[in-house]
Amino acid sequence: MSRTHPSEEHEHERALRRGLGLSRRQLLAATTGMAAAASIALAEPAQAAAHRRPLIPRGKRGIILYTVRDAISRDPASTPLPSGFRRVLEALAGFGFEQVEFAGYRQHAGSEGGANLETVEGARLLRRWLDDNGLRAEGNHGFIPSSWPLTTADVDRFKQALEIAGILGLGHMGTGSDPTGSAYKADWDLAAAKWNELGSIACAAGIRLYTHNHDAAYAFLLDSGPLDEQGRPTRSSGVRKLEYFFGISDPRRVYFEMDIFWAHVAQFKHRTFTAPDGSVQTDVFDPLGTVQPRAKRFPLFHAKDGTSNPAGANGYDMVPFGTGDIDYTRFFSGLRSRGYHNPMYEQDNAPGTDPAQSLRYAELSYRNMAALRG
Questions:
Q1: At what angle do helices 120-132 and 152-168 cross, to 10 degrees?
Q2: Is 191 exposed, middle or buried, given 0-12, 13-18 or 19+ CB atoms closer than 10 A?
Q3: Known InterPro entries for this protein (predicted)?
Q4: Is the Cβ–Cβ distance between 83 and 72 less than 8 Å?
Q5: How far apart are alpha carbons 203 and 210 in whole angstroms?
Q6: H or E segment at 235?
Q7: CB within 8 A of 364, min separation 6: which ones?
Q8: Of 158, 163, 156, 253, residue with least CA distance to 205
Q9: Burial of 27 by CB count in 10 Å (0-12 exposed, 13-18 middle, 19+ buried)?
Q10: CATH architecture assigned to 55-371
Q11: Is the pTM of this model over 0.70?
Q12: Which among 27, 32, 71, 293 is placed 20 to 30 Å from 186, CA to CA?
């Protein structure tokens, strides 16, 4: 290695001082300061990341049990892996989850408690397992009557579902479906009348009723233009179906669970509509922009991730949370009501040929939910 002679170092120093117009003491202070600044600059990104707030608070990190339905429904005698509600809840709590959302109350008949826990006794058993593992149940995708007007049998069954929800300590009860699959205003009017009445019954029981929405609910309402052979409109004024429902459903009685994955699918799929004059208009859907004006009506989210696939019908392929292309940092950073919403990790395709896959994905997704900062 070559070394610089001390006299050469002094000459370099003198030349630098002359060029900068500094004394030797000033030059020493400046170079020391620059070195310190460089050190600080290198440390700042790591320190900043460490001090940014979690975008999903610890107590709000949840999972809908549909994601691990294969584990809940398999025969515990056939595998050493967690099976049935009790063991699966233990595993999820071990990963760090503190909230769950049910997707019904059935499990394998060989699991503790038997096949059907949708009873008062079954709900008490589930509640004990939740409490034992420090878990809180926030919702359930359960029974919503399909008929309208409501029958006595419908109301009785709905009230039974509310009783079970109360035992479990659910703050919310809902469905995995849109209020209606129709594209027409008249059908959404009927849906709002039913949901307002059901919401009133639920509210009297201290529970908020919610509807879970897929991309079709964000398509455009057919509400104008020439009529078809059945007398229905064929064009749109540009109002989205769920947007119309927001306005005609009671904000004190009817709530929503946005599936953020399907909302991004809607952004990909439902971009244009045919206006009353026959022209094609473009309107790109913004999931965050839909939540913001009515944030309190979205107590629940499905935090489902996807990788971009423009060649596919939906534009995205489902993957574990935090491994896809949906910008969850932007979404959760943009929420005005931080700490209010309850995001539930969901992945429809988590079960696979590997019997451990859905629980492994759940553990990975919890870690990624916890790591999200903003």
A1: 30
A2: buried
A3: IolE/XylAMocC-like, TAT_signal, Xyl_isomerase-like_sf, Xyl_isomerase-like_TIM-brl
A4: yes
A5: 11
A6: strand 233-235
A7: 320, 321, 322, 323
A8: 163
A9: middle
A10: Alpha-Beta Barrel (3.20)
A11: yes
A12: 293
- Domain spans, the chain: 6-50, 55-371
pLDDT single digits (tens) 332-349: 999 988 889 999 999 999
Helix axes 185-204, 152-168, angle to 10 degrees: 50
| Model pLDDT, residue 351 | 98
Q: How far apart are CA 284 and CA 271, in angstroms?
A: 5
- Which residues make Cβ contacts (< 8 Å) with residue 374, sequence separation at least 6? 52, 53, 55, 329, 332, 333
On average, the pLDDT of the chain sits at: 90
Residue 214 has which token pair? 């897929």
Structure token pair of residue 337: 């009501």
pLDDT-derived band at 1 (thresholds 50, 70, 90) equals: very low
What are the tokens at 123? 């709900």
> Tokens at residue 72, please?
């809940």
